[in-house]
Amino acid sequence: MGESWREPEAYLRDNAAMTLHLLEAVREEAPEAAVVVVGSSELYGPPASLPVDESAPLAPQNPYAVSKASADLL
Predict the structure, then answer these.
(1) Could you give the dihedral angle defined by the CA atoms of residues 10, 16, 20 and 23, in that order, rounded to the nearest 10 degrees?
(2) Closest by alpha carbon to 37, among 61, 65, 15?
(3) Which residues are catalytic?
(4) Is the pLDDT of residue 1 over 70?
(5) For the whole model, what pTM was predicted?
């Protein structure tokens, strides 16, 4: 079992909450700035076909992937 299953709150806090705080800070201090949020193929779950791109539906399969999908949706 992966670490994110043992500590799901830490992954949500570290990925989703920190992304939210970063985006809020950018909106307040530099609203014209572009922000690049790095994702993971984990957001999409098992691929229906390859290559997987951003048009694939989100289907996270573990707490880490859920945290990365949450950050992506923010």
Answers:
(1) 120
(2) 15
(3) 64
(4) no
(5) 0.85
Among 30, 34, 56, which Cα is nearest to 45's?
A: 56
**What does the alpha-carbon distance between residue 45 and residue 71 come to, in Å, rounded to a whole number?**
16
Of 43, 37, 4, 41, residue with least CA distance to 22: 37
Cβ-Cβ contacts under 8 Å for 16 (sequence gap 6 or more): 67, 70, 71, 74
Residue type at position 57: P
- Residue-level pLDDT at 17: 93
- Cα distance between residue 47 and residue 71, in whole Å: 20
Cβ–Cβ under 8 Å, residues 62 and 43: no
